[in-house]
Amino acid sequence: MNTVLFSIFIRILPKKLVSYVVGHLTQIRRPKFLVLAVMKWFVAHYKIDMSEAEKPFEEYFCLNDLFTRKLKPGVRPVEGDFVHPADSELTQAGEITKTGGGSFLIQAKGFQYTLEGLLNSRDVDDFDGGHYATYYLCPTDYHRVHSPVTGKIVGYSYNPGFLWPVNEWSVGNIKNLFAINERITVWIERKSSDGTLQKVALTMVGATNVGKMSLSFESGLFSNSIFKRFSARKKYSEGIPIKAGEEIGIFHLGSTVIMAYSRNFPMDNPKLGKVKVGEKIGSSVLS
């Protein structure tokens, strides 16, 4: 399919409905022989390393079980107190720049979007001059998302939206893609050794066929419900303790994680490319 035809096709495709249906298809468990055949094809096609999986292949009963698999203990050692949150490709990283129109992040060459739009919040002053990082998860990757720091989860927000794909074409053609797609943001805070409050916003962004996302610390919240179209926000008065490398959420298919760090994080821009959960981010160390 050429670029023009793909552009027309993806614009008219009922992306939320298709994603909702695909999500249910991945949970089908019968007939068993057919489900196993699909899962075997999936593993072979995407070259998934099942030796890292928590359970043997035969103990996964549907494609969603396989896709959201946990890993064996110790497979992803945590290398410090500032680590990558997902097995993924780090595609963008840089400083959050403040101008008259907002606090900007780079989506792709020629495209920017605002942190205010991504987080659906005007309260982003602490992030001006801070840093961001964009992680893309492909079907081959392990699809659980982990905290990059040790601290406390102080709340989350859910923003229903579109489900554009997050492939190369969409990132380069759909303005404000990450700020208009379905997304869940987890807010984390921690104090440095000198008592300074440091803030982190971890945003999981949905995409076509990747509409369903869930949180590991909050049962009952699932994105891409065609029956629920309202934003949700919750704050925890005491906060939920979380350690660097500890699980925070799940993609029930794959998509994108965008990290935003407040300006008082001593952070250099990390090297772009493939990364693993728990790997230390460059030479940066939280103080």
Short account of what is shown:
The protein folds into two domains: 3-67, no CATH class; 88-275, no CATH class. It is built from seven helices and 14 strands.
Detailed description of the structure:
The protein has about 290 residues and is of the alpha+beta class. The protein has 2 domains: about 5-65, no CATH class; about 90-275, no CATH class. The protein is built from 7 helices and 14 strands. The chain has helices spanning about 5-10, 15-25, 30-45, 65, 115-120, 170-175, 175-180; strands spanning about 90-95, 95-100, 100-110, 110-115, 130-135, 145, 150-160, 185-190, 195-205, 215, 230-240, 245-250, 255-260, 275. The strands form 3 sheets. The protein has an 8-stranded antiparallel β-sheet with strand order 11-7-8-9-13-5-1-14. Strands 2-3-4 form a 3-stranded antiparallel β-sheet.
Give the secondary structure arrangement, pairings included.
Elements: H1 3-12, H2 15-25, H3 32-45, H4 63-67, E1 88-95, E2 97-99, E3 102-108, E4 111-114, H5 115-119, E5 131-136, E6 144-146, E7 151-159, H6 168-173, H7 177-180, E8 183-191, E9 197-205, E10 213-215, E11 232-242, E12 247-251, E13 256-261, E14 273-275
Antiparallel strand pairs: 1-5, 1-14, 2-3, 3-4, 5-13, 6-12, 7-8, 7-11, 8-9, 9-13, 10-12
User: How many domains comprise the coordinates?
Assistant: 2
User: Can you give the mean pLDDT?
Assistant: 86
Largest sheet strand order: 11-7-8-9-13-5-1-14
Outline the low-pLDDT stretches.
Answer: 283-287
Number of contiguous helices: 7
Got a strand count? 14
The coarse silhouette is globular
| Biggest sheet details | 8 strands, antiparallel
> Strand fraction band?
25-35%
- The termini sit apart by 51 Å
Provide the structure class: alpha+beta
* Radius of gyration using CA atoms only: 19 Å
Helix content: 10-25%
Order of helices and strands: HHHHEEEEHEEEHHEEEEEEE
